[in-house]
Amino acid sequence: MRFMIIVKANKQSEAGVMPSTELLDAMGKFNEDLAKAGVLLAADGLQASSKGARVQFSGSKRTVVDGPFAETKELIAGYWIWQVKSLAEAIEWVKRCPNPHVGDSEIEIRQIFEQSDFEELTSKARSGAR
Amino acid sequence: MTESDATVASKAHRAIDAIWRIESARLIAGLARFVRDVGLAEDLAQDALVAALEQWPESGIPDNPGAWLMATAKHRAIDVFRRLKRLEEKNEEIGHRSEAAQELTVAELDAADDDVGDDLLRLMFIACHPIIPTDARVALTLRLIGGLTTEEIARAFLVSTPTIAQRIVRAKRTLAEARIPFEVPSGTERAMRLSSVLEVLYLIFNEGYAATAGDDWLRPALCEDALRLGRIMAELAPAEPEVHGLVALMEIQASRLKSRVGPSGAPILLLDQDRGRWDYLLVRRGLAALKRAEDLGGALGPYALQAAIGACHARARTASDTDWPRIVALYDALAQLTPSPIVALNRAVAVAMAYGPAAGLELVDGLDGEPSLAGYHLLPSVRGDLLEKLGRLEEARIEFDRAALLTQNARERELLLARARSCANTPRT
Q1: Which pLDDT score, from 0 to 100, does residue B114 have?
Q2: How confident is the model at residue B218 (pLDDT cuts 50, 70, 90)?
Q3: Of B131-135, B193-197, B266-270, B392-396, the least confident
Q4: How confident is the model at residue B268 (pLDDT cuts 50, 70, 90)?
Q5: Does B8 touch chain A if contact means CB atoms closer than 8 Å?
Q6: What is the rounded CA–CA span in Å between residue B128 and residue B138?
Q7: Judged by CB atoms within 8 Å, which residues 37-56 of A form the interface with B?
Q8: Contacting residues of B for A129, CB less than 8 Å apart
Q9: Which of A6, B220, B289, B349 is placed for a possible disulfide with A108 were both Cys, Cβ 3.0 to 4.6 Å?
């Protein structure tokens, strides 16, 4: 199964402050470990929301709102796509991730939809695994 | 009320499962280098797992669970060797494990954490050693490197758990008795051993991709396992073009998993698939892996060539955009490297697409009477398809009926019978 691992934004990432060399190195090492374990499918860092926009829908009406956006903690600073066996495995990997920001950070783990019959087959084959 | 003890325990068990998935291969590989016996290394790792299952639900999961497991396994190793040594002092019969016992020290065991990559590669090579039967190589690879349990392997291959357990036990014994060195092979042996590794990974993938019998067209969990192992292998042996070739082939084939079956479970052929449902993340990964193989230089090997053929389909926005002449050229190269009637049959299909059904049929007819294709449902199936395109419907119907009799897959049989019926019902022009 696949998961999207979402790194939430904070003040620094929204201000466009680049992470320290140490953090970049640690993150590089973590990504290398993910690749070596065959877990990493994709990864990207996102630029500050000031460089983005939102399109708001109301019925048939569309309104474009330019960034930046206020609710920093709800914004996304980057993501990975991982292929793992379970949510628990994704959690274990995330616990090994270096703290992505100085101070407090949050990483959210969300399972990606697979075609339902796949999921059924997979869980049938794997349910009750050790 | 706070979380019940049972909930806490089951949470801990799930976490331990996950940690085992992440750590087990490295643990076994690191231990195997020192105890010189893959079977013993796995037993020690399992002992550490049992200790974790006993202690962690109470004590909580340590900050570095991998290091905890390794330290626990090492202590067990030392105990085992001390016991063996005492036994040896009493007994003149000397086993090869006891040779290791004489040299084994804590300091040496501590070094077992180094060179994890090399150890994993050694483990991959030994699990796929040609001295053990192919089905045992598959089971051992999934268990030692894939981190699957015996039960999971049994379920995936539709055989009983004791059968798999026995295969694994025998394989470990064979490896121990033959004293297969725990090393990465070099020289001419390396090429032969590498091809065995790749063969095993592709076998696992194919088992998931198209179940050879039964009603389930797909067992995708095995495809994921094979892909994960392939991606690991690509990081362990990045200078081997065929490793990237195989990864590319599997990524590209897996990108079509979702579009290969219709809502009723009937198979959908490549050219009829909805390309919007292909997994373009996997397509992109496949094309990148193929590029890695190509960038290493030299002529493409059989896996990379098959991946390149898959890439022609992946790059075509619609089926009619497919570069068939290039596919024919790639099949020419593949037929030179690995000549086989199956490759010839696939080439004939490509020729038909590039230069018309008559040209393809001529090649297919040349394969008639090929002993290895007798009983192979795709021969009459392809022939039927070409005859249908040429308007020779009665002959086509006979071929589809014959193919339906030969296939082992229930869904495919339905599809072939439907095509036969459609040939019979279409008025002749």
Answers
A1: 53
A2: very low
A3: B266-270
A4: confident
A5: no
A6: 7
A7: 37-39, 41-42
A8: 17, 149, 151-152
A9: A6
Where do the structural domains in chain B lie, given as residue ranges?
1-114, 339-429
Give the angle subtended at the CA of B423 by the CAs of B419 and B428, to the nearest 5°: 160
Q: Which residues of A are less than 8 Å from B220 in CB distance?
A: 118, 121-122
Q: Most A CBs within 10 Å: which of B64, B224, B287, as the mutation test of the A interface?
A: B224
Give the neighbor-by-neighbor strand order of the sheet with A107-111.
Answer: A40-45, A76-83, A2-8, A107-111
Backbone angles phi, psi at A34, to 5 degrees: -65, -45
The residue ranges of DSSP E strands in B300-351, in sequence order, are none
Q: CATH second-level architecture of B339-429?
A: Alpha Horseshoe (1.25)
- Domains along the sequence of chain A with CATH: 2-126 (3.30.70.1060)
Q: CA-to-CA distance for B328 and B323, rounded, in angstroms?
A: 9
Quick one: angle between helices B378-389 and B357-366, nearest 10? 150
Two structure tokens written together for B178: 């033959």
Q: Which residue has the tokens 């090649």?
A: B363
Whether B285 and A41 lie within 8 Å, measured CB to CB: yes
Determine contact: A84 vs chain B, CB below 8 A: yes
Q: Are A82 and A69 in contact (CB under 8 A)?
A: no
Kindly state the average pLDDT of the residues B163-181.
94
Nearest to A89 among B18, B156, B265 (CB): B18
Answer for the pair B293, B241: CB distance below 8 angstroms, yes or no: yes
Instruction: Judge contact between B153 and B139, C-beta under 8 A.
Output: yes
Is residue A35 less than 8 Å (CB to CB) from chain B? yes
Contact B12, B53 (CB under 8 A): no
